[in-house]
Automatic annotation (TrEMBL), chain B:
Coiled coil: none annotated. One of its GO terms (molecular function) is CoA-transferase activity. The keyword Ligase does not apply. It holds the Pfam family CoA_trans. InterPro entries: CoA_trans_fam_I (IPR004165), NagB/RpiA_transferase-like (IPR037171). It comes from Histidinibacterium lentulum. Keywords: Transferase. It comes from the Bacteria. This is CoA transferase subunit A.
Amino acid sequence: MSPSATDRTLRLAWMAARLIPDECRVFVGIGAPCSAAMLARRSHAANIDMIFESGVMGADPPRLPLSTGSPSVAAGALMVGSMLDVFATLQRGEIDIGLLSGAQVDRLGNLNSTVIGDPSAPKLRLPGSGGAHDIAALARDVLILMPHEPRRFVNQVDFVTSPGHVAGRSEATGLGNGPKAVATDRALFGFPDGEMTLVGHYADIEEDAAVEHVGWPVRKADRVDLIDPPSAAIATAFRSFSGDTT
Amino acid sequence: MSSDGSSKLVGLPEAVRQNVRDGDLVFVGGFGQGVPFAIAREIARQGLSDLVLCRTGADILFDVLHASGCVKGAIFGWLGNPGIGISHVLRRAVADGSVEIEETSNFGLLLRLHAGALGIPFLPTRSLGLGEIANQAPGSHKPVLCPFTGEQMTAVSALTPDVAIVHAHRADKAGNVQLFGIAGDTLEGANAARRIVCTVEEIVDPAEIRRTADRTILPAARVAAVCHTPLGAHPSYMTGLYDRDDDAYMAFDELSRDVAQLRTFLEETIHACPDHASYVSRFVPTALRSGARGAGVPA
């Protein structure tokens, strides 16, 4: 039996939340990235500093926010600063982990949230970067969250909105390390030498399902870890904030 | 001119007539909260044209003005229906070529506005050197070497809007403006602009401003016009006063998929409402109105 939509959202959030250590500073995008940070905060990482591009630091949203400027982002936060404050924090290299998603990801961890199709005559125009490009460039490490769906994992994205392991990153000063992992609701991919590589999957699915929908023959690590699905306690923690969004 | 003397308090139609012109580059304030929808609806009512809107995280205010025929271009970092999805108006406008887009990242646009606010022609950043965003907008992004360290950076050009439209909690008649809660890029954009038009939930005595001067975000000297416009941010929210009307944003996602439905929506919410008060009485849910009555300061 395939998991319900709620289950898949939880499995996606947990796959990434596991990788967020306590005490770190995370720059959080809206949607699945925010779910992962909120879940980490409610399980093993109570002291992470959640930062939103709207200028909010030390955030502790009671409910999953609809947007980075939502009231729940400011509710209970330690500081409502300015956008310039938080992007300055990012550019100074003080963000340990940037949490991102997008419409497409490719084998180098590039993310596309700008256009589907030929950029000069797009099939679908998307909202664009927002702060995602800046987070991808400047956070020390980047965790990408992607629903495990067809057409999302492509050999090459239609447009590089947020750079992954592209030429120029390692030579430049003050840039982050690029994507560390791609978490899905089934699998975990790493970038051992700059290319997306299967390093683990939930223990209750087969390896074939873990690489399904990936649009190229994806590499597999010598050791592929089996990862425990979220426990009942984790599921309860997830439900505590994932209901109504504001 | 005294900073708390001469009144800049005018009606919304007059403020727009005097300060927003066809072809202006318009900075749109607010970020989640305080999106200046009442000013936007008045701009549409007056039939202004060829505006270029700029804003880091633009929301459906762009859709409303573009679909009203007021907009020829947009400079943005993100443009969609926040928390809900894509902008169907932008999607169609890109497909039919009815909008000129100049795009960057949110940090990139923030720095362009900050450069404008600082009165300098550009600012360098470590961002925007990788990927394809900068290549798409070579007029506002160029590689630059730091003259001191030799580091490779990306220069973004200053943006100086003709006018900024801002909605805030309160001001005195002179135009000393106070805002509480999330401001996003509002200050950078307003300070970069030549003129600022500000609507507020409440007009307060200058003595109240002086008592709480640490909450003033814009001094009267920067503000061209101030309008008493309660619920002027609807359907966005104001901290401590009223919540975001999520139902309205969701309804807009549906109705804006269809051009005819969108036209009807604009007819009803803008042109059939002679003024903001009429819009409020017809389209702002009663539950949201109670919070906005009276005090302009959140508890």
